[in-house]
Write a structure and sequence with these properties.
The complex is a heterodimer of chains A (about 210) and B (about 270). By secondary structure, chain A is an alpha+beta fold. Chain A contains seven helices and seven strands; from the N terminus they run H-H-E-E-E-E-H-E-E-E-H-H-H-H. Chain A has two domains: about 160 residues, no CATH class; about 45 residues, no CATH class. In chain A, strands 1, 2, 3, 4, 5, 6 and 7 form a seven-stranded antiparallel β-sheet that branches. In chain A, a hairpin with a 2-residue loop joins strand 5 and strand 6. Chain A is globular. Chain B has two domains: about 170 residues, no CATH class; about 80 residues, no CATH class. Chain B starts with a helix and ends in a 10-residue tail after the last strand. The mean pLDDT of chain B is about 90. The chains are: A alpha+beta (about 210), B alpha+beta (about 270).
């Protein structure tokens, strides 16, 4: 399932923890409704924060359900620091590539880049708010962190890391030079191969 | 004092609850199931109450059926591609939700005092699109005109479930209670409680999240069920505890909500430093 499709499904079920937990998503903060959750595409992690979740009643006799979520790139080590209460929630969104995605009524609007924290500052927790005993939260964050970390290990074991990519390149070059040598009939010298005659001589010497 | 409280609880278990196959337990019959209560639990038997004052119950507007029945804005009215332009347009048209919450209070108040698991089932209808195979127990919660209007279809009735002791919290009604600096001096006036709630809302900047916009403050001052505090505080600063409450099935819910008053959250607080 694509990332965007996943987000749409989450939007449709913002008030149902069990359903949104099913979409590769971990809710981290819940104060009478889910406020913050993680999402991932394999080993790329995102942190999402609910900027709006409300119903606007309109003068023309209709209503508009409004959901708006802020999304920023993150890493497992940052999530660990966040959930262990070492950094402010706000700092998770500082100097990050961020975007907002929202739904009004039944319409999902295109994702929009956020150019700085000032743009969303009045809708995210203030400086000093972190996962400590002053943050009311229905979620057991220790358990959430354990789950996220164990899932990340699984993704890691499948993913091709930067280091592995480099090693792959080295192997490719070596294979290339090997083929070249093979073509020049230098196989013996490259592998330091012995001919049957050499072996026969060795056996003779030992006897 | 302590002995008197224990005595009262014992009386409650004997007179108001049903017996259990084990002597350590009783069954408390609520409107929806029978809850196992371990009467000798070392931790919880000390933090159980029959009456408590200054309890806070948050109002979840998502269960308001009046708001639910208002038609959703059509996509034709949202022809712009930029969300900010759409939001700007909405703000021109927007009414305060306070009025509809107040106007519909009398009719909706029973829905604001539901156990968490039943409230969730109502939200599956109002926020999700569940219309079929609905838990039959919701028949006694939802008004008939709403059932007819949405053509809700229910599952067949089932026998009353027994909820295992370890799962009791999920089947309770949630309340909170705020304290001053230590747990011995509780917040006893609306002004004190409001200040604490505003503090949470202010710190988190919850301008556009409506689930703690309105709340009730009141007392449970007659024996209508069992109240149990969580072992640990829900939050340290401001200090408050979460309480589970199981109402006895033969008590009318109005006896409880008639002792609670609705308060609005003061949005002005977000504009000034506390």
């Amino acid at each position: 399932m694509s990332f965007e499709k996943n987000l749409e499904n989450i939007f449709g079920n913002m008030n149902n923890l069990e359903i949104i937990n099913g979409y590769n998503c971990h809710v981290l903060l819940d104060i009478s409704e889910p406020l913050m959750f993680t999402l991932n595409e394999l080993n790329q992690y995102y942190l999402a924060y609910t900027l709006q979740n409300r119903t606007a009643l309109l003068k023309n006799g209709t209503k508009a359900d409004v959901v708006e979520v802020l999304i920023a790139n993150t890493t497992i080590s940052e999530l660990k620091m966040l959930l262990e209460g070492e950094i402010d929630i706000k700092d998770m969104f500082l100097n990050k590539n961020m975007s907002r995605i929202g739904k009004i009524g039944n319409k999902i609007f295109p994702r929009k880049d956020v150019n700085g924290i000032e743009e969303v500052e009045n809708k995210i927790p203030k400086t000093g708010v972190r996962f400590d005993r002053t943050l009311p939260n229905k979620i057991n964050v220790k358990k959430a962190l354990r789950l996220i970390e164990s899932e990340a290990k699984i993704y890691d074991s499948f993913a091709i890391s930067e280091e592995a990519k480099f090693q792959k390149e080295v192997i490719r070059i070596e294979l290339k030079s090997l083929n070249k040598k093979k073509n020049n009939l230098n196989l013996e010298s490259y592998f330091n191969l012995k001919t049957f005659d050499d072996i026969r001589i060795e056996v003779k010497d030992e006897s | 004092m302590r002995g008197k409280k224990v005595e009262k609880l014992q009386e409650f278990y004997i007179n108001k609850c049903e017996s259990h196959s084990s002597e350590d337990f009783v069954l408390l019959k609520t409107d929806f199931e029978k809850i196992e209560i371990h009467i000798n639990d070392n931790v919880y038997s000390k933090i159980r109450y029959l009456k408590l004052n200054n309890l806070v119950r948050f109002l979840n507007p998502k269960v308001n059926l009046k708001i639910h029945s208002v038609p959703q804005i059509s996509n034709d009215d949202l022809d712009m591609e930029d969300i900010d332009s759409a939001l700007a347009e909405l703000s021109e048209l927007e009414l305060s939700s306070e009025e509809i919450i107040k106007d519909s209070l009398e009719e909706m108040i029973p829905l604001y005092f539901l156990p968490s698991h039943i409230e969730k089932k109502v939200k599956d209808i109002t926020c999700g699109n569940k219309r079929r195979k609905i838990d039959a127990r919701l028949r006694k919660v939802l008004p008939q005109n709403f059932i007819n209007e949405l053509e809700l279809n229910f599952k067949p009735d089932v026998d009353v479930d027994i909820v295992e002791y370890d799962f009791r919290a999920k089947h309770s009604m949630s309340f909170f209670k705020f304290y001053n600096d230590d747990e011995h001096t509780e917040c006893g006036t609306f002004v004190e409680i409001e200040k604490k709630i505003n503090e949470v809302k202010y710190r988190l900047n919850l301008n556009y999240v409506e689930s703690i916009d309105h709340y009730f403050i009141g007392d449970i001052n007659v024996e209508v069920g069992l109240i149990e505090r969580d072992e640990h505080e829900h939050n340290d600063d401001p200090l408050y505890y979460h309480f589970n409450f199981w109402k006895l099935s033969d008590i009318d819910l109005s006896i409880i909500f008639n002792n609670f008053n609705l308060y609005p959250f003061n949005k002005e607080v977000l504009k000034v430093e506390l």
